């Protein structure tokens, strides 16, 4: 079940986001609490790997996401008053951090959609996300494993380095919070810069640009669907 690999990659990578925080900032965070959440997420990985029912898989993904976002506020190290994270809210986002995350996820979804189309896959036919008119379900599937290392990591970096500040947001009449023009420019500039950085791909064992990660994963998915691979290898980041 391809959906299982998407979820496995997502939980693995978001757990590693927590592990990196403990490793790099142990004096500034509640280490024991973060380690506890990390262990809980690790304990879920075998069940995810063996899941055969899509609803069960979605339930496991929901539990892991709840645990991850329960730890998210501790990964915000600076500007705590302006970027206090209580819970994930969207449609519309109601605070600065959720506005930043929503924008990051939109950009990532667009990149995933373009990558899928470039390898000949229909970005509107998904495995994990149910197909709905106008929804790029496969783009949402593919981005799940990339949310942590690409979108969340970018948002946290911008906050913790003070590149994004409260002045980069505006509140709408309906109380929704959005990035303003300057904020979007800051984000997109940093996004393009990050895409030019390199990493060793965990499956290919070759150096590639971060900007090629969605394309490589789309290509691996296409190769699996066409029978060239025995399984779809999720992107497992460290």
Strand adjacency order, main sheet: 1-2
Helix content: 55-70%
Main structural class: mainly alpha
Radius of gyration: 18 Å
The N- to C-terminal Cα distance equals 24 Å
Description:
The chain has 238 residues and is mostly helical. The chain is 57% helix and 5% strand. The protein contains eight helices and four strands, in the order ααααααββαββα. The strands form two sheets. A two-stranded antiparallel ribbon has the order 1-2. Strands 3-4 form a two-stranded antiparallel ribbon. Strand 3 and strand 4 (207-209) form a beta hairpin. Helix 1 packs antiparallel against helix 2 and helix 1 (2-24) packs across helix 5 (137-144). 38% of the residues are buried.
List keywords for this structure.
globular; 57% helix; two-stranded antiparallel ribbon; 238 residues; mainly alpha; 8 helices
SSE map:
Elements: H1 2-24, H2 31-50, H3 54-72, H4 96-118, H5 137-144, H6 147-160, E1 169-171, E2 177-179, H7 181-195, E3 198-200, E4 207-209, H8 213-225
Antiparallel strand pairs: 1-2, 3-4
Helix pairs in contact: 1-2, 1-3, 1-5, 1-6, 2-3, 4-5, 4-6, 4-8
Q: Quick recap of the structure?
A:
The protein has 238 residues and is mostly helical. The chain has 8 helices and 4 strands, in the order ααααααββαββα.
